[in-house]
Amino acid sequence: MAKSKTSFFCNNCGAEYSKWMGKCSSCGEWNTISEEIITIESTPKWENESKVRKAKKPQPVQELSHQKEDRINLLDNELNRVLGGGMVKGSLVLVGGEPGIGKSTLLLQVALKASSLRILYVSGEESEQQIRMRAERIGIVNKQCYILNETRTDKIFTQLANLKIDLLIIDSIQTLQTAKIDSTAGSVSQIRESAGELQRFAKESHTPVFIVGHITKDGSIAGPKILEHMVDTVLQFEGDRNYGYRILRSHKNRFGSTAELGIYEMLNNGMREVNNPSEILISQRDEASSGVAIAATMEGGRPLLIEVQALASSAVYGTPQRSAIGFDTRRLNMLLAVLEKKSGFKLGTKDVFLNIAGGIKVDDPAIDLAVICAILSSNYDIPIPEKVCFAAEIGLTGEVRSINHAEQRIREAEKLGFEKIYLSKFSLKGISKEGFSIEIIDHSRLEQLFKSLFGRN
Ligand code: TYD
Ligand code: MG
Predict the structure, then answer these.
(1) Domain shared by 286 and 269, yes or no
(2) Does residue 269 lie within any of the structural domains?
(3) Closest ligand 1 atom to the C-alpha of 269?
(4) pTM of the model
(5) Which of 205, 315, 379, 381 suits a disulfide with 320, CB 3.0-4.6 Å?
(6) For residue range 209-247, what is the model confidence (pLDDT) as tens digits?
(7) Residues with CB under 6 A from ligand 1
(8) In a shared domain, residues 102 and 1
């Protein structure tokens, strides 16, 4: 016997309430609580199970059996790396991203590429015809890739019982509906229950599952936060839609580092893996122009050379404008204050605009020096020579601070044909300048650095 009841859920964090409230006391959001009908099986959850499963006893950690996790190679270097070296069997991976960013394209492409695996791609969003058209656009033929247009979880599991598969892709969790709960697809209780069923399927059958999840306006994965707790890995697909580049970041990974990142380029025939991102992030120029500086940054475990563009112009309004794309505006303000103190840059009379090329967001502090040099270069109208790059954090007193992975950054710059790299004196501990063909210029104070770069301070 099943009985029906309703409950109130916060659409933002998934907290459950017995009555409606204007503000969720768990996450503090207003107007996010809505009523949902849920049907609950009246037999207690554990009753049947206890007959089948024996109670487990605690064991010392040393005696637990352990195996190295079994990983599947997805034949996509970027995705494999972000997952920590391939997809772990039985793991649940949530792929989030704004609509139209390319989640379905990426996962269908993965399904088509992995010809040695039997894959089921379940779509509740697009018709079979649309998926076929997309597959034709991607242009890979794979007979082992099955498509199912279904939203009811019980029907999906019936198909899965007949079809022995190596990987399941669900596009998207917001379209799934389980018979156990009456509320509409996409509601908190539906998402939670469907994800729970998928989790059980993944763990019991050791089949890895990709789940696509939509994103809300504020950038979190739509539906409850609880979804993020249930899965093993949360990947976020992001990028500026006006640029072709897409970045796959890992926000949580039970089987690998969250520092890794994958870069793709959206082409007419699917996603291209970008194995050498530095080359595309530095724009091609005929001659050096003022206001441009190259920063040697690290994204995850990978060195990345990116272009910082700045424009400093006379302010026309009383309050000078500050605007930064891809960089923290508060940090920009701080760097401008340091500049004023150390180089006589008249902060109050200048508008400053900053742009990180390629639509990329950077939070590596090593970009500071390139930001400062780009601003000064624009202000003095003195171009920085083309084959020069920077990697240092700037302190409030104008000191050039050391950064981590200095050697890797120098090697990457050298590989890309740069001739000079400006670093902090303190980054060079244990690194000999003789070992590199690139010239390493180290300073500890901004004033010295400006003198050597622009001939003035
Ligand atoms: P899609 O994968 O449907 O996004 P999501 O599933 O995240 O909502 O991507 C849709 C966009 O990608 C759409 O604007 C068309 C574009 N696209 C390409 O540029 N090249 C391609 O090969 C494909 C299949 C799509
Ligand atoms: Mg889609």
Answers:
(1) no
(2) yes
(3) 22
(4) 0.76
(5) 315
(6) 999 998 766 666 666 677 888 899 999 888 777 777 888
(7) 97, 99-105, 134, 137-138, 266, 268-270
(8) no
